[in-house]
Amino acid sequence: MDKEGKMTKNLLKLPIEEKERFFDSFDMVQTDCDGVLWLLGEPFDGVERSIRALRTNGKRVVFVSNNSVRTMEDYRAKLYKLTDHTVDDEDVIHPAKIVIQYLRERKFDDALCYVIGSTNFKNCLREAGIQIIDGPDEPVPEAIKAVAAVINDGQPVKAVIVDFDYNMNNIKLLRAQLYLQHDALFIAGAMDTVLPVGRMRLIGPGCYVEVLEKIADRKPIVLGKPGREMSKMLKQRYAIDNPRRVLFVGDQPEMDVQFGHISNYQTLLVGTGGVKEDDLKQLASTPSMVPDYYIDSFAGLEQFVRDVMVYKARNGEKSGP
């Protein structure tokens, strides 16, 4: 059930009249990538046909990921195959892009930032002209004097930025803690506490953020899903006046569905990330994680669009609101 007490609806099981009303109720699709369009880099069968069906029938498709580890070259290569080589870089969003936009808008892009993140995340900031320091990635001597010299370095850091870091370690958290105690801005990118990778569930960057929140007694500005600030910036970026005319598609209730609800978008959960239709009843106590609609896979949207188009053709209608 959602926050209004309604049950999540299986999109492909709706009566055709309701399918048509739903199809006409949105103009833009914002979709997650990992677990929705592909898994471990391998695209799910049929995804390209669904994207084509949506676009052909008037829907703008934007790709909103929490993964700044993946390079734009990698996103571009994967999405070109799924979109008939018509993807625009402006329609591919991940936290590093939003962080850069946020810092620039606040004239903060010439300030020194301490960054915990992947190589690509940090490269994105550097290429945008953001001054950053990072590390250490190598072990330090196990002596308090040696540790203190690294973490209490007196650098004029104005912002601490935290995202996923393959080489996360305790010294980085200690450095971040001290900078935050000196009133540095606290920015978080991806907030996933768990990263589903196949059958594995790995520690996500949200865990690092939670540690720093507790020890520094600070709340971060969240510039990844499900952050309100990210939501505001996407609405500004795409000139979204009526958020109800946006459909957000994702595979994780905690990140994607919550982000959709925070944004006042309509929400569609796909089952390819591990959360199936039968699992939704377990989310009833957390309405913000209950999607409006469910479908087994993004590829199933092709059949949904085809059903609506056939119905419209029989009734002499045009697609769109």
From TrEMBL:
Binding site for substrate: 65-67, 225
A Gene Ontology molecular function term of the record: phosphatase activity
Keywords: Hydrolase, Magnesium, Metal-binding
Residues the record lists as binding Mg(2+): 32, 34, 251
GO CC terms of this entry: cytoplasm
Cell division is among the record's keywords: no
Catalytic residue positions: 32 (nucleophile), 34 (proton donor)
Cofactor dependency: Mg(2+)
Cofactor detail note: Divalent metal ions. Mg(2+) is the most effective.
Pfam families, A to Z: Hydrolase_6, Hydrolase_like
PANTHER family: 4-NITROPHENYLPHOSPHATASE-RELATED, RE04130P-RELATED
Entry's family note: Belongs to the HAD-like hydrolase superfamily.
Protein name per Swiss-Prot or TrEMBL: 4-nitrophenylphosphatase
Species name: Anopheles funestus
Phylogenetic lineage: Eukaryota, Metazoa, Ecdysozoa, Arthropoda, Hexapoda
